[in-house]
Amino acid sequence: MPTGPNILLIISGGIAAYKVLEVIRRLRDRDFNIRAILTKGGAQFVTPLSVSALTENKVYQDLFSLTDEAEMGHIRLSREADLVLVAPASADILAKMATGQAGDLATTALLATDKPVMIAPAMNVEMWNHPATQANIATLESRGVIRVGPSAGDLACGEVGSGRLAEPAEIIASVLDFLEAQNAPKPLAGKTAVVTSGPTHEPIDPVRYIANRSSGKQGHAIAEALSDAGAAVTLVSGPVTLPDPAGVKVVRVETAREMLASVQDALPADIAICAAAVADWRSADEAGQKLKKDRSGEIPDLKLSENPDILATISKAGPTRPGLVIGFAAETENVIDHARAKRARKGCDWILANDVAPETGTFGGDDNEICLISGDDENSDERWERQSKTGVARALSARIIKHFS
Ligand code: C5P
């Protein structure tokens, strides 16, 4: 009996199915225990015999097989795996997964499983780019399904573009990375965190709003890093185009006032991180109807009123104040001085100062350069090298772990 992790491999229809035989071989070399389900479509491309010979296990094909059900019910089959891997994942099985269909053994197992699911899509480029497939992928990813590939290149159908099954080595690397992360220690287990992210939209009338260029990349990355470290994370996000981070509870809001209310709902929490670029002002009198362009050419006066400061409010939240409150200070000049003053003014514990002058490309970009300010003494400032926003998120998570230990 293999001693490695258990994988339930679902092979759906596609010419790329032959490449999955190589994935099986390499995982078997690592002593993985692989049980395979071969869909009707999959069986057109690889034989049950070759899959069975390579997995050294029985191959499951039929939902209503009396012998299979007696030996290993489909629910058990879906629950005994550490990971369910769908490779290749055809457009058809992705659509069925997205809509929760259960018409055969593969889709039933996918609906019944309580285990993480990884997909390796493979299909024609137009099928991959079709809005229906892209919507299905977005739905699946928002539910925490992990995706590897597809890659771009020559396709079996003779066309060129995105839709090639990821190479076996890439699929195996994703499986190993995932299992390693699963088994990694969870130093923030038992801790709760609330993270704000993205911009806010402040309506002027039903069609117009005040906004800013925040992408939400930094806040989302922080939520994911804390969750990876074991914290139970609520991410309160303004309007962004990013997928929801895996394993995180996401609350979507539009305005600063909604954001504050959702953050307060998430309290008490051990950690609060305000990474959102909250609009400082909103329209003082939001119009119920679309403002009309005045024929006389008169321009409406836009009166503003101040939004609540979420960071300052929760820093002074009395008994529900989180033990560690962290804010950002996005500055374009005198970054450290302004950030230190902001830390004192808002009453938070740490401020992550970053330069968002247009030439840095930080706002909306992928990288960030941080100085962590945790006290009045500048000797305690920690300057982190310029790195990706994911890198910053991991560094912050590591620093929080150190703080609590
Ligand atoms: O906009 P400002 O520079 O004051 O933002 C500093 C910090 O305060 C950031 O962490 C931001 O998320 C937070 N903030 C907030 N609510 C506001 C304005 C800012 O939570 N209304």
Walkthrough of the structure:
It contains 14 helices and 22 strands. It is an alpha/beta fold. The protein folds into two domains: 6-183, 3-Layer(aba) Sandwich (Rossmann fold), CATH 3.40.50; 192-404, Rossmann fold, CATH 3.40.50.10300. The longest helix is centred in the middle third of the chain and has 16 residues, at 168-183. Bound molecules: cytidine-5'-monophosphate. Cytidine-5'-monophosphate is lined by residues 196, 256, 274-276, 278, 280, 307, 309-311, 327-330, 342.
Summarize this, please?
With 405 residues, the chain is α/β, with parallel strands linked by helices. The protein folds into two domains: 6-183, Flavin prenyltransferase-like (Rossmann fold, 3-Layer(aba) Sandwich); 192-404, 3-Layer(aba) Sandwich (Rossmann fold), CATH 3.40.50.10300.
Low-confidence stretches: none
Number of domains: 2
What is the level 1 CATH name of the largest domain? Answer: Alpha Beta
Quickly give the CATH architecture of the largest domain. Answer: 3-Layer(aba) Sandwich
Structural class determined from secondary elements: alpha/beta
CATH-assigned fold name of the largest domain: Rossmann fold
Number of discrete helical segments: 14
Largest sheet: 8 strands, mixed
Bound molecules: cytidine-5'-monophosphate
Kindly state the number of beta strands: 22
- Percent helix range: 25-40%
- CATH homology superfamily of the largest domain: CoaB-like
Radius of gyration: 25 Å
Shape descriptor reads globular
Mean pLDDT: 93
